[in-house]
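Job type: complex structure
Entries:
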Amino acid sequence: MNLLKIQETLRQTVVETARKEFNIELETVASEVPPKTELGDAAFPVAFELAKRIKQQTGEKSNPRQIAERLKAALEANESVERVEVAGAGYLNVFFDRAKFLIESQNVEVLPCLSESENRAAPKVCVEHTSVNPNKAAHIGHVRNSVLGDTFVRILRANGKRVEVQNYIDNTGVQVADVVVGFVYLENKTLEEIKNLHARLTAEGKTFDYFCWDLYAKVGQEYQKNETLKARRAEVLHLIEAGGNPTAELADYVATRNVECILATMERFGIRYDLLPRESEILHLHFWKKAFEKMRERGVIKLETTGKSAGCWVMPTDSHTGTEEHEADKILVRSNGTVTYTGKDIAYQMWKLGLLDLDFYYNPFHEYADGKLVWITTAENLQSANIPDFGGSETVYNVIDSRQSYPQEVVKKGVATIFPEKGEAASVHLAYEMVALSPGAAQELGFEISEADKQKPFIEMSGRKGLGVKADDLINRLEANALTEVNNREASRLEKNPGEESLSEHKKIEIAHRIAVGALRYFLLKFTRNTVIVFDFKEALSFEGETGVFCQYSAVRANSIFRKLGEQVSGSGFQVSDLEAISAIFNAEDGDGIWSMVILASRLEEIIANALNAGEPAILAKYTFNLAKAFNLFYYNHKIIGEENQTKRAVLIAVADLARRSLTAALNTLGIEVPERM
RNA sequence: GCUCCCGUAGCUCAGUUGGAUAGAGCGUUCGCCUCCUAAGCGAAAGGUCGCAGGUUCAAUUCCCGCCGGGAGCACCA
């Protein structure tokens, strides 16, 4: 009997009692977490609702407290409940049987869904995230996208969902064209020479995406003063889209090397993908043509014959009202017959949902260290073996910057209009605000800031200007800082305990890496999605206070207790006959403190369900921090190893074990691993 | 002009579908390593929840109107 099940049973009891006693049918029963342990473990403010409903139904005024009293007995009949109190104006505060709960918690998985083997028959959901244009290195804003997406994937899996992770590669867009213009017209390089450059950079320990980062910024500057160069962009873009020519080949080489770099960067953060769908295949396999046919069949688009958009195929929208400057309807096909970005996106979304009747071909792109493959789409059938069943998801989550809210709305509405049977709920835009730079941070990076920008609260990062904190730079800095700390702490540990074994260099690097990832992932996850993160070096590099490192430290301390206790304690559960002795521990003066640790650690499953429903990983991040904080307090207040009362010692061990299991699972769901030592 | 987001402690942010004394971190001040790791723990100080109305037994939360900040509204991607 875990916490969720107890709460569900109690809710049912409330519904049944309301039906029996008051002849009222409650659809939902709200339950709350009381603000303090002394106020119980679950609270139902249902008596207020019932009083209102009784008045509506019979016209009789009733006292919420009296209603609560009548529900009280029914709730107390539950075997997990010790007692129920009616508090305040009519709150029902439920107190669990603490000893019984603790005994049962020992045999309960903190995340039951994860322990089950993946159900291949379960409906699949798709998460698209990262989707960095393959023309430069990823910056911290891209990492916010990837970390949010990856964490959401982990939350879905912890809720028992089958998930497919896609990273869309826009390899035929203007951004790639810009870097190609740079290579060809500024650097005067052929494909062979670019290949040599790549080899040289690799040999020097440098990365191709960093080179492109600078080149892209250089091209952006050149465009401002060189109109001929700007004209080249259109030519190059056209050649890339057409395919089958040397420029397209060169662009493909550049884009693919950048994709490799970005994958390597994200792997450092523990972020992986199943499939890389490319825009080139969406074009070459005529996904749009198929989508267009379906839209015409279903009559959701029309050809404008008059007005500003004459000659364009448009999709009428009602969510937006037109003005003199802007048409209300969304153009999907331009008057020259080419398709817009939104049009392509609708086709891609249709494929994701299994509504297109067309498919890509697939080829393995990259193999992770443990053998897992990332696949990439291809335009030709390369006869690959064991291709997973991609696409055709029940629900699609697109992790995209909130600046894309309008086009995402069009895609969602568009797909829902073509397929009303599928509906809008199948397309979810997980929008998030940008990561911006404070004027100070921008200056710290060595950028000239205009007087106007200095007045602004924050400055938007820009790949085109080369203005941003590169992901690898930041994680390198974090790892270096962490390694310094690890070395210092290791030295003082060995000084105090000369007999202890020292950590190998390899292990120290691994610990520093985990700390760095923990710090950065938590930093990006503690903000809710619709908060603009104004990047601040001091805050991002911090290892103290509300940080991932704090949470990791708490888990490391917990593990350290069990290391000292040795293996003999694991699996030594209580006997049911111990119930009274355990109750005595909880009823003692410091019993509430011990119990609050138990109940908080038991909420993980509920919190993860909340995080999924709200589409908000920050809920889990905040919980994890609070859990770590609670454990640090518990750790300080109760000295487990030195405890002389054997029952109390056993209780404390069980509580600490529950806390560390919950904390570890919470951190892992955030994509943060617990280091061996800290 | 229209749409969306934000405004909570000195700073950065949480605050579930309305609910009990509005929370955390940083910063400031003061305590705590003879005791399972001080990347820690405790305490103090700090609030007209942007302003003004409305709905309700109950509003930081829902509705309306202002004020201030941000983003979007392309035959760009």
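Summary: Confidence is low (pLDDT under 50) at residues 319-326 of chain A. The radius of gyration of chain A is 29 Å.
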